[in-house]
Amino acid sequence: MAGHRRCTGNWRRPRPRRKPPAGELDAAQYELTTAETQRRAAEDEVLRLQGVKNQFDMLLSNLRESVENLAGEIEAIDGRIQEKRGPKRGGRADRGGPGR
């Protein structure tokens, strides 16, 4: 078996973990608390921004609907104007009046 080492029994037991000094533990706890607070603040901001986005989505939808309605009104008004002008006879007829 080339490339394999035989276990000779000379392995070392893992050292027991030493407790970090109290100052390090306090610093780590502070960092953890700070990170959790920042995470919660970020989650709150995400929820707030999602609400704002939903409001803008509704506004955009309402504006698009208004544009469609206004386009329909413009068509209806154009149709009434054409009806009042009567049939076209070889171009624009001058009916007198200011600016015509």
Can you tell me about this structure?
With 100 residues, the chain is mainly α. The protein contains one helix and no strands. It has one helix at residues 22-85. The longest helix is centred in the middle third of the chain and has 64 residues, at 22-85. The radius of gyration is 40 Å and the shape is rod-shaped. 0% of the residues are buried.
Which SSEs are present, and which pair or pack?
Layout: H1 22-85
Q: Oligomerization state of this entry?
A: single chain
Helix/strand/pairing category: mainly alpha
The coarse silhouette is rod-shaped
Largest sheet: none
Note the run of SSEs as H and E. H
Overall average pLDDT: 83
- Strand residue content: under 5%
Helix content: 55-70%
Quote the distance from N terminus to C terminus: 107 Å
Count of DSSP H/I helices: 1
Total count of strands: 0
Uncertain ranges: none
Determine Rg (CA atoms, Å). Answer: 40 Å
Question: Outline of this structure?
Answer:
The chain has 100 residues and is an all-alpha fold. The chain has one helix spanning 22-85.
Keywords:
rod-shaped, single chain, 1 helix, mainly alpha, 64% helix, 100 residues
